[in-house]
Design a protein that fits this description.
This is Deazaflavin-dependent oxidoreductase, nitroreductase family. It catalyses: oxidized coenzyme F420-(gamma-L-Glu)(n) + a quinol + H(+) = reduced coenzyme F420-(gamma-L-Glu)(n) + a quinone. InterPro entries: F420H2_quin_Rdtase (IPR004378), Split_barrel_FMN-bd (IPR012349). One of its GO terms (molecular function) is coenzyme F420 binding. By secondary structure, this protein is of the alpha+beta class. About 25% of the residues lie in helices and about 35% in strands. Strands 1, 2, 3, 4, 5, 6, 7 and 8 form an 8-stranded antiparallel β-sheet that branches. It is globular, with a radius of gyration of 14 Å. The chain starts with a helix and ends with a strand.
Length: about 130
C-alpha cells in the first residue's frame, strides 16, 4: 500500500484530486472481496493504461509472497476500480506469459523500483490486467 487508509479516504473524497498523482506517478483504487472474510478491501496502486485496460503490479515490494489484494482477486476476479472520479467494475486477470514482458516494461518505466523488487524475490511478480466491465 502507499498511504493506506488515509490515501484511500482522500482519494475517494476528492475523486482523485488528492491521491491520484503520487511520487511522480499515478494511482488508482482497487477494491477486492476478501477470499476468507468476504469483506471489501480497497488498495491504492500504481497503474498505467494499456489500450482500453489498466495495469497494476502485485509486487509487495519484492516480498516472497503475493499481496493480499492479489490473492483476493485470484479467488474472485470481479473487482471495483476508481481512476480519479471514474468508478467502474472490472474483471482482473494475471497477464499471460507471452504478454507480460511488454506490460512489465510499461510498468517498470512508470515505477523503476519494480525491477529491483523482481530481483529480490524468487516468485515472478504478476502484472494484473483490469478489464472494464461496466
Amino acid at each position: 500500500m502507499l498511504y493506506g487508509k488515509e490515501h484511500v479516504q482522500r482519494y475517494q473524497e476528492t475523486d482523485g484530486e488528492e491521491g491520484h498523482d503520487w511520487n511522480n506517478t499515478t494511482t488508482l483504487l482497487l477494491t477486492t472481496k476478501g477470499r476468507k472474510s468476504g469483506k471489501s478491501y480497497t488498495t491504492p496502486l500504481i497503474y498505467q493504461r494499456f489500450g482500453d485496460d489498466y495495469l497494476v503490479v502485485a509486487s509487495k515490494g519484492g516480498a516472497p509472497e503475493h499481496p493480499q489484494w492479489y490473492q483476493n482477486l485470484v479467488a474472485d476476479p470481479e473487482v471495483e476500480v476508481q481512476v480519479r472520479g471514474d468508478r467502474f467494475t472490472a474483471r482482473a486477470r494475471t497477464a499471460a506469459s507471452e504478454e507480460r514482458p511488454g506490460m512489465w516494461r510499461v510498468m517498470a518505466a512508470t515505477w523503476p523500483p519494480y525491477d529491483e523488487y523482481q530481483q529480490k524475490t524468487d516468485r515472478e511478480i504478476p502484472v494484473v490486467v483490469l478489464e472494464r466491465v461496466t
